[in-house]
Amino acid sequence: MIPTILRHVLRPPHRLHSTYERLLGTEVEVQVVARTAAQAEAAEQAALAEIDRLTRIFNRFDPGSELCRWQARPGDAHVPLSLELLHVLRLADHWRALSGGAFHPGADALGQLWQQAAATGQRPSPAALERQVSALRAAPWTLHADGSATLHAAGPLGLNALAKGYVVDRAALVASRCVGVRSVLINVGGDLRVTGPARVNVQVADPFTARDDAPPTARVQVRGGALATSGQAHRGFTLNGTHYSHVMDPRSGQPVQDVPGVTVTAPECVTADALATILSVLDVRAGLHLLAGLPECDALIVTADGQRHASPGWRGVNLTRGPSRGARLLLTAR
């Protein structure tokens, strides 16, 4: 068992609150509200077991994961895949088509080019970027009706923009089905899912600073749904003194510059996760137009000029000053 750095149970109702390190490469927070302490602990263990199981499928840094083993077999026809991996691949196809290519699992190859550029101090050549962008125009794989797949892409594929949200959803669902459970919160590095009647107030980080004590830019309440964020303050790379986002535009090969921060609320975390990436890549008008056709999905988009663009259904509150964003999320039972 990976050691907890915070764990306590409050009564009544019995609310178990634990934080773990080094799960999914980040901090994982689990909160459960149940009738008894034993029921809360059983639900927590069920969530952790599901996270561990799915990590063995999707971990791109583990050569033994199913995803890595499949990527080691490009060109092999009809490789049988698990239902979980097939489901996420189908979602990737869906979002790639719906976004007009703004979402692409092959964008990791572009990230590698820019990371190499940061190491050498020289921007990628236009020819190298065009070759990679051209390669991304082709379908990265073919999914077959018999539950198998054929991988076409020769470069690296990253499913993190979907897989993390999928894991969060599954862990929350498994825990919520346990006996006596009222509400569940699973929070993985800021991507979260809340089930049951409880609600949680989420502080939206300022996308222009990496300071841990910076006041939040907005606050939004999540109940019976999910939230995901995308931002460049904590992630990215520096090239010749300029900081660039880790988010790549698969259509141009360039790092995203116009949208430094996006926060999305949606019924499921896997949907919020995908949209957080897509809305970082699309221009604001196109992003809001896409959201308009997705029921119960809303977003706050912060552009490089500091403006905040909210979809009509966004229920967050903009803040000009407030407590540190390091404040811990806490389920409020209803």
Tell me what the structure shows.
The chain is α+β, with helices and mostly antiparallel strands. The protein has eight helices and 17 strands. The protein has a nine-stranded antiparallel beta sheet, with helices on one face. Strands 4-6-5 form a three-stranded antiparallel beta sheet, covered by helices on one side. A three-stranded antiparallel beta sheet has the order 9-10-17, with no helix packed on it. A hairpin with a 2-residue loop joins strand 2 (14-23) and strand 3 (26-34). Helix 1 runs antiparallel to helix 6 and helix 7 (269-281) packs antiparallel against helix 8 (284-292). The two termini are 32 Å apart. Residues 1-10 and 322-327 have low confidence and may be disordered.
